[in-house]
Amino acid sequence: MSLGFRDVACVRGGRLLFSHVSFDLAAGDAAIVTGPNGVGKSSLIRIAAGLLAPFEGRVACDGDKALLTEAAALDAERPLVAALRFWASLDRAPDPDARVARAVRALDLDALADIPIRLLSTGQRRRASIARVAASEAPVWLLDEPANGLDSVSVARLEAVIARHRAGGGIALVATHLPLGLPGAQEIAL
Ligand SMILES: Nc1ncnc2c1ncn2[C@@H]1O[C@H](COP(=O)(O)OP(=O)(O)OP(=O)(O)O)[C@@H](O)[C@H]1O
Questions:
Q1: What is the pTM of this model?
Q2: Residue 69: CB within 6 Å of ligand 1?
Q3: Residue 47 domain flag
Q4: Is ligand 1 within 6 A of the CB of residue 40?
Q5: pLDDT tens digits for 16-69?
Q6: Which intervals hold domain ABC transporter (predicted)?
Q7: ipTM of the complex
Q8: Domain check: are 53 and 79 in the same one?
Q9: How many angstroms does the Cα of residue 150 sit away from the middle of ligand 1?
Q10: Are residues 56 and 76 part of one domain?
């Protein structure tokens, strides 16, 4: 699996946000996208996800992708585990229930399993969204500000989940303005 940007430029609303962004990520690699508000970090993640076309350059991705953005992308009315199972059952990987169970444990969400998404706190909902990505077991994770709203214990859990993903050969591309421990990650400073 791999994810590569070659001389990628991004234009939004007629304005050039960045250009000549190149990087290559292979199995086990991570990159952190940094820069001030409005520089284009979320836009870069959306380009990697295939939701936004690059203005110039090329993006190559070999492997299924899982995307985390500001929106939880979980059914607000469903209980947490049911909402996660909905997505997990659509993934290519086998055994959705086991994948959800592993992700729920990793994000310490067991006690909230039956609570509807709409009743979760900001940080709990963010942990649920991270669990959605983790449960997908997709090889390429695209995470936009995953640490937003998390307390320090949850940030440590997020770091551990990403580390395990990489140890299993996964790739993580992470936009963040908060410090995040991703050992050996490349920095893409916009
Ligand atoms: N759909 C759009 N149409 C026009 N301009 C847009 C659109 N979406 C985003 N922009 C602009 O693109 C610029 C970059 O936005 P983006 O969300 O990628 O930045 P960011 O680096 O992630 O910012 P932040 O740190 O505040 O999250 C901003 O000036 C924003 O207003």
A1: 0.95
A2: no
A3: yes
A4: yes
A5: 999 999 999 999 999 999 999 999 999 999 999 999 999 999 999 999 999 999
A6: 3-188
A7: 0.95
A8: no
A9: 22
A10: no
